[in-house]
Amino acid sequence: MPPHEGLVHLKEYDVKDSNVELIGTNIDHDVKYKSAATEPAWNDGQVGQAGLRIWRIEDFEVVPWPKNKYGQFYDGDSYIVLHSYKIGGKEEEKLAHDIFFWLGSKTSQDEAGTAAYKTVELDEFLHGVATQYREIQQQPSENFVALFPRLQILKGGVRSGFTHVEEEKPKETLTLLRIFKHPAAGRTDSIVVHEVEPTWESLDEDDVFVLDRGDKIWVWQGKKCSPMEKAKAAQVVHDMTIAKHVDVEVLSQAESRSRLVVNLLGGGETDQPSFKASRPLTRSEADGRPRRLFRLSDASGKLEFGLVKEGDISNEDLDGNDLFILDTGKAIWVWQGASASTAEKGVWIRVAQAYVRQLQEAEGPGNEGAHLTPISKVTEGSESRAFIKALAA
């Protein structure tokens, strides 16, 4: 297929009427870099070195997250996570960077917007070679989950409108944690600890639950839970009881006494023989949606977006003069060619989000929950291992 055949005009992105002519130019980079150079969070002497760094957005500010809370997130907040790691051989070794901005399900528009803006700024500070990921709480990417041996998501947040779970709870307040294995790239021990509604309808026989009443903790083991989930639940309970001395009782669903936990969660009158509650985190599956490659190009004088290929896709299908969107079914990847125009660079996030909205509105297998699909961006010459793997799949 010719490079620009079948592309559809996007009138709202007409280059002639655009106000983004300077995006991607040397002036634009200089302005952004100078702005980034004044951000205290990026200038602590550790950004740009190998390792993991996390910040939370608080009142439009980027605030370092305590290292002892790495892997712990609140559903009312937005975070920026930077993972820097070495790639290449000894002679050509260099640092690669993954930047994730994680959006809690109850985060505010201001917090989410600040996280997205600051992610771009951090990428500029790292000279534009980072891979950027938009992470949604309900459907995190495997690459994000793989960063943490334990991913913990709790209710609350920095805003005053949310209950701060860090504060001591009244003795009769019920807190229910669901513990389950979540497959992640490169890990076999990845466990999620997710706070769920303290009701019997949150129980599931495949997982382990920890019920904290303040003066006592119960561990409810579903009859189909794995040994790893049981072991991880024991670690969670150990961490919970370090600062306070409370009784802990472990109950298997197969035991008649396990009914006590159901009763405490308001299920005293239910005679349900089994418990099945959908997990709070889902995995994106390519269920019937084919792999597709799209091109964003302004070679004709107007920005055009259209399908290039469907099915088998390889590196040979990419062109460094344009910008491409790869839909694997599980994730949306934006590949920015080294010679892409300033207009193409300036609208990639809007085009990617518009594509996701179109998927969500379209009927068909693989489109359910498309709005939760992870969106990531890489630049030619600095492709992440995850993108290379996705392209070759």
Automatic annotation (TrEMBL):
Gelsolin-like domain location: 61-144, 191-240, 307-388
Organism for this UniProt entry: Rhizodiscina lignyota
GO biological process: actin polymerization or depolymerization
Protein name: Actin-binding protein Fragmin
UniProt GO MF annotations: actin filament binding
Pfam families with a match to the protein in the record: Gelsolin
UniProt cross-references to CDD domains, sorted A to Z: gelsolin_S1_like
GO CC term, one of those recorded: actin cytoskeleton
SUPFAM superfamilies cross-referenced by the UniProt entry: Actin depolymerizing proteins, C-terminal, gelsolin-like domain of Sec23/24
